[in-house]
Design brief:
- It contains 20 helices and no strands.
- The chain is mainly alpha-helical.
- The chain folds into three domains: about 170 residues, MFS general substrate transporter like domains (Growth Hormone, Chain: A, Up-down Bundle); about 190 residues, Growth Hormone, Chain: A (Up-down Bundle), CATH 1.20.1250.20; about 80 residues, Arc Repressor Mutant, subunit A.
- It is globular.
- The N and C termini lie far apart (about 55 Å).
Length: about 475
């Protein structure tokens, strides 16, 4: 089994446990219900600890060897910790849940090392989609077991899944020679993605407020459909991921992102308008979780591409996913507060629609910023895109500005199309060192220091010609 497949297996097994148990998981809810305790404060502490683990992961993990050791330790600790929940509730439940969740956060962020090293940048969207699909399928299995059979059977099965994750983690490579097919080169060190990452994190926080509202208010409103909820909840999410993963490359996914925003709005309008029947649940859940699947793949894949611009992928992935968790926390707090005073949930739906409105405002500038950094990303197709022939002509004419050699023009064209150094070397049958030397000369002739400045220079040329 190659590194990419190993990384998908490890992620899928561990993440399914995370979704089914400490992160608002149905196994944990079922255990709390069996023991007649209120799980809300315990779960709030768990999610907060998970947020802290994601944030701090970049400071705790610096190398792939450290990442593997942390993943092994975290999984082993979580296996031992979960055994506590077979016994009567005590203070140990809170201690173990918080520590498990913290380590789970660091573990997910550490997986970024293997996402970066095991999958080329232009293929990471499929690796991420596979991991999310398989983990949610396993989560459904755990949920159905805990709800329809026994919470303790679900707990035991989740421990077995963690054992499987531990088994495959041992087989992950640690040699640093193949750390990444697209290692950030010295020439790329001037590319600063802080602004792009910050903007993306703000967007993630805002949109996942609605996810927190869903966890805290929408899901409990349909909890009386126990059997249906136990298996259908994540089905639209999985279907959306599968469709997005297999769309033809030429499909304009930007339009689909706008459709997903609309789906979120309609989901909360339907929740506010309709009753709590099976049909209403199917409508609300399909709209909401389908949209969540589309947007999760969007920002996960963007974070995956950003890994090439930092030597520590755990930091990038940890910060991005911590924004997701913070949005869920914020939405959960808002939902809990409103549900105590508004039993009709009208205020809740109004807040959700305000969030949708804000998303519609900030998404276009975010899309523009990210498109400047990732010209070739599936989700960053321009809304009014010119034909590839016209694009090639524009790029080709641009390459004559800097009095480049023929080889330098070829490399510049590939750089502007978003190709990595490794891919450029392969397409032109050159060594990576030769490519680096040519790029240094190109940057020198244009008096710039990074690919980002090269993209900006070309965009300025296009704007000047269009006037």
């Amino acid at each position: 089994m190659n590194e990419r497949r190993l990384s998908i297996v490890v992620f899928s097994l561990f993440f399914s446990w995370l979704l089914a148990f400490p992160f608002e998981g149905q196994v944990l809810y079922a255990l709390a219900q069996r023991n007649k305790i209120d799980p809300h404060m315990m779960i709030f502490g768990s999610i907060t600890a998970h947020f802290a683990g994601l944030i701090l992961s970049g400071f705790l993990i610096k190398t792939r060897l450290a990442a593997k050791r942390l993943i092994l330790f975290s999984i082993a600790y979580c296996i031992i910790g979960c055994s506590v929940f077979f016994f009567a509730p005590s203070i140990l439940w809170n201690i173990i849940l918080i520590s498990d969740s913290f380590l789970a956060g660091t573990c997910v962020a550490a997986w970024g090392f293997y996402l970066k090293s095991g999958t080329p940048s232009n293929k990471r969207i499929k690796t991420i989609a596979d991991g999310l699909i398989y983990s949610n399928i396993l989560m459904i299995l755990l949920n159905m077991t805990a709800i329809n059979l026994s919470p303790y059977t679900g707990l035991g099965l989740s421990i077995l899944i963690l054992g499987g994750a531990l088994f495959f983690t041992v087989r992950l490579p640690v040699n640093e020679q193949s750390v990444s097919p697209t290692q950030p080169e010295k020439i790329e060190k001037h590319i600063n993605t802080n602004k792009h990452l910050t903007f993306l994190c703000i967007f993630i926080v805002i949109i996942t407020i609605n996810s927190g509202l869903m966890y805290q208010v929408v899901n409990p409103a349909f909890s009386h459909h126990e059997w249906l909820v136990s298996w259908y909840w994540a089905v639209p999410y999985i279907i959306a991921l599968y469709i997005m993963k297999n769309l033809p490359r030429k499909t304009n996914r930007t339009y689909i992102l706008y459709v997903a925003i609309t789906m979120i709005g309609f989901a909360f309008i339907a929740f506010m308008t309709f009753d709590r029947s099976v049909a209403s649940y199917l409508l609300v859940d399909t709209l909401m979780l389908g949209a969540c699947g589309i947007f999760d793949l969007f920002w996960w894949s963007i974070l995956g591409e950003m890994l090439d611009f930092d030597k520590n992928p755990a930091k990038i992935l940890g910060l991005g996913l911590s924004a997701n968790v913070f949005g869920v926390l914020l939405g959960g707090f808002i939902g809990d507060t409103i549900s105590k005073v508004d039993t009709g949930n009208h205020n809740l739906s109004v807040i959700a629609l305000v969030v949708v409105f804000i998303i519609l405002i900030i998404f276009p500038p975010l899309h523009k910023q990210l498109s400047m950094l990732f010209k070739n990303h599936e989700f960053l197709t321009a809304l009014f895109e010119v034909s590839p022939t016209v694009q090639n002509e524009d790029i080709f004419s641009f390459t004559f500005i800097g009095q480049l050699t023929e080889r330098e023009r070829e490399i510049t064209m590939l750089l502007l199309k978003g190709r990595t150094y490794k891919i450029i070397a392969g397409e032109l049958s050159l060594s990576e060192n030769t490519v680096k030397t040519h790029i240094k000369n190109i940057y020198s002739k244009f008096n710039i220091k990074s690919r980002m400045e090269l993209v900006n220079l070309m965009m300025e040329k296009e704007r000047s010609l269009s006037r």
